[in-house]
Amino acid sequence: MIHSIVKFGxxxxxxxxxxxxxxxxxxxxxxxxxxxxxxxxRGVGLAAPQIGISKRLAVVDxxxxxxxxxxxxxxxxxxxxxxxxxxxxxxxxxIPEFREEVTRAKTVTVRAQDxxxxxxxxxxxxxxxxxxxxxxxHLHGKLYxxxxxxxxxxxxxxxxxxxxxxxxx
Length: 169
Ligand code: NI
Known about the structure:
Blueprint: H1 25-40, E1 45-47, E2 57-60, E3 72-83, E4 86-90, E5 100-104, E6 107-113, E7 119-125, H2 126-139, H3 150-165
Antiparallel strand pairs: 1-2, 2-3, 3-6, 4-5, 6-7
The chain binds nickel (II) ion.
C-alpha cells in the first residue's frame, strides 16, 4: 500500500519517534509499504514519521531498485561512528522542490535491528552515509534544514508559508 508523504509543517516530523519492540507481521507489512511508498515518491530513503507513523524505522535504497541487495531496513537505528567530511546537495521527500548543500560525515556506521529484531552494523560511504544520517535524524524529529544556515532555513520556511497560503503545499 502506498502512503502519501507527510510534508513539512506536520508536527509528526519534528518529534522523536518511538522505539520498536514488536517484530511481527505487522512490522513486516509496514516495511513493505514503506519501500513501496519510497519508490513511488522517487526517493532513496524514507523514515516512518514521513508517512505519519512515529516509530523508529527507516528504509534506504541508494541504488533506487538497481541492486536488490542494497535495500536496507533500519529498525531503531543509531549512528555509532562518523568519519571524514563530504559536501553535497540534499533534499527530503517531506520538503519537496527544495535542495540545499549540507556538509555530512563521509563514512558512517549505523547499528540497527533487522525485521527479526537481530542487531547488525552497517558502514556506508558517500550517499549511503548521507542517507544513514538523514534518516536517523528524521527519527529524532530533526530535518536536514537544521544543518543549513538560519538565513537559508528562514527563506525556505517563508517560501513554504506562501505555498501553504496558496494551497500548494
Ligand atoms: Ni527526509
